[in-house]
Amino acid sequence: MSIDERIAQTLASVGPSITLASSSEALAFLLGTLTNMPAVIAFALYSSVAIIFDFLFQVTAFVALTTIDFKRQEANRVDCVPCIILEEPSDESENQLLPQTGKSEKKVSRLKRFFRDVYTPIIMHPTFKLLALLAAFALLFVCIANLVHLPMGLDQSTALPSDSYLLDYFDAQTDYLAVGPPLYIVIRDYYNYTDVEAQNRICSNPGCDPDSIVNQYDNAPYIAGTTYAWIDDYLSYTIADKCCLNWYAGPGRMMECYNESQPYCDGCYHLDPYDDNPRPTPEEFMLYLPRFLASDVNDDCKLTGQAYPADIVWADDDQTQIKTTRFRLYHSVLKDQSDFINALNTVYEVADDNPDLDISLIVYFISILNNTSKLSIFAHSLLAWL
What we know:
The chain has 386 residues and is of the alpha+beta class. The protein has helices at residues 3-30, 38-59, 61-74, 91-94, 110-123, 126-147, 166-176, 196-200, 213-218, 230-239, 282-294, 337-352, 368-375, 377-385, and strands at 95-97, 104-106, 182-188, 223-228, 245-250, 253-257, 265-267, 312-314, 322-331, 360-365. Helix 12 (337-352) crosses helix 13.
């Protein structure tokens, strides 16, 4: 059978499977173009087109070049210099006796004799097999032990072309950035903000718990400055003498006033004068909270809540119950992926260490979606290997 006929039969046998495999892979990569991420779309398009052209080259150019190479071998031509034709070996030099059997065989190269007479007997020896097995297990345990020390994340600049304008942006961000991304602490599920003990578990004013939510985050790594918590400013607002004043206008009628010198103008809150850290009653807490959120700064009161209305979600239109609130703070400068991952891990650890089961707490910041999966990549890799 000629070389052309053998190549034709081979291509007829494997051609359908190559076509199906290439078509399915190209279509699978094309599905990646359905996403909204430009980088993924570009990668999917390039990969799909590359697979299609690879298939075309395999069934055309590769087949032709393989046929030419087989004909070169039959003509006994040198592979790198096909214009040189080697002489056919004589029958006497072509055959030699095997020392084990005394039978003749065609003369083999030195490399083949090395693998047959030296390498193979060594690796098939029982002692070598045992040493190879022990070495493989030792290497496995060393890899597992060092797995946790591998740095997580990918430097974003490595995924960009060398002439990309984003390289200058990342360099400037590393050199000049002075503030990190904002972080939000969200308390859900109708937390009882009017209870003094519940207040102490989340605030940072004098009298609050040392391990309160706000205090823990203020002292956590990768956190810059203090937390912008409306409850801290509101509790300070309640004990200020001239911030919240009411004018008694008759039975059951109280109107806001702005100067203690006005007749019948008195403080809103009836605080315990003997308490070092007085707190308003539950009714007063909820009644005057909307006034605090709308208050302006003036000469008599430097506290205002106008920065906090977006941080409170009311359960009703009458603003008598709080459904969800958030506290705001900022990370320290996060320059690379490792900083983002470590900061996210710290944020989660503080939230998980919260011993109070009454607080439904979640935390998030701008890059949480990009880095959350990286926190568990080692555990998932180990489970996949097992």
